Protein: YibE/F family protein
Amino acid sequence: MGHSHPHTLDGPAPSARMLASRRRANLLLALVLLPVTLATLIGMIVLWPSGDRSHVTVADPYATAPGVTFDVGTVTRVATETCPSSQAAVEAGAEAQDCLVAYTQPDSGGAQVPVEVTPEIAASRGVEAGDTIRYLNLSEVMPEQAGTFVFVDFVRSTPILLLAVLYSVVVVAVARWRGLRAILGLVGAYAVMAMFILPGLVEGKPPLLLGLVGSSVIMVGVLYFAHGFSARTSTALLGTLFGLAVTALLGAWATDAAYLTGVGDEDTYQLVNMSEQISLSGIIMCGLIISGLGVLNDVTITQSSAVWEMYELAPGASVRRLFTGAMRVGRDHIASTVYTIAFAYAGAALPVLILVSLYERPLFDTLTSGELAEEVVRTLVGSVGLVLAIPMTTLVAVLVVKATGLGRPAAADALADGAAEGAAARGAAAEDTGAGVPEPALPSGRRARHRLEAGQEPE
Structure:
């Protein structure tokens, strides 16, 4: 979501005692997560869509009549001139209408054709020489009439593929194998959406359960696949599932209480006419659950790692001290992610914001209007689930690490015993000579850890 956080800290390799502690932590978490995961899989099996779409009537906007085709070509030149489609009217004595005409070389070969560009495209970006476009070819059904080539859309395959390749290269180059696993996990998440959540909504499955089960499956797969099987990941997963549950329950209430009908744009009207089983309010509810998955995953894995690193630096620190220290990180994370979510949704709804702002309505009326209410509710619901997931993840992580019984590492005990014996010897020598011996200075890392274990602020 536009920001990242270090999830691990460099340090010495874990000792055998630390590894045993982590195994105990994994066992404790498995006792909780296995039943939850099993229930999620059962729910997925029960809710799995049948694939029957006989009740859906789809008017495909790309379907054509016999003899009409969608062709692709490259624009060679552009001119503003009399619209080809108005030639018949001009010949009949009517006034000529000017429009943007893109002379295009078809990819299939043949002579250039004059493609009439729609006014909204001409007024926004326009069409330039070298652009690859898709246009409607009516020449076979209307061979004697001019204006039989009409602009449909740009062909964007090349720039989007280049951006996708660049994104993948950058992620793998910086995050290496973990970055590659994250990308593959993202592909799997979209597969769950395409094969389970979307068909389920079309068939009228319960949207609350559909969104909660589908999102839980996505998070289980993404977290373990990207970050590996560890106590940290399992702790983050528990916090994520808690945040998902809060978001789902709050979203179910807000969808009804805020009267989110989902009939504010053209796409939803098309869905209403396609099938009686499709619930627009259910789609909105499911969207509220899914929309915050990425940020929720980010904050929970960060909090889990923060607790584990603090604990391994100061195993003797109390539960309260570990929780307080980790929540300092969490509060910073809350401050950054709350406005990240808000700005992300504001950017997505920018055209609507501009349009509504031109109506010169009061600010509160604008924010609660049908055009913006869905975005406002999505921001608030997602933020509440996110904020509550942070202390829950932190608390679970602290309780798990303390329950492992690691205590002070053997090396630390030996160092402390050695330091005590040395101090006693120096004290005895000081008594003999009458001179005071200063307290030995500890390395900064060990001194900070000792202060942390004593419940004091690090220097």
Observations:
- The radius of gyration is 31 Å.
- Strands lie at 69-82, 98-106, 113-116, 132-137, 149-154.
- Residues 211 and 423 are 62 Å apart (CA to CA).
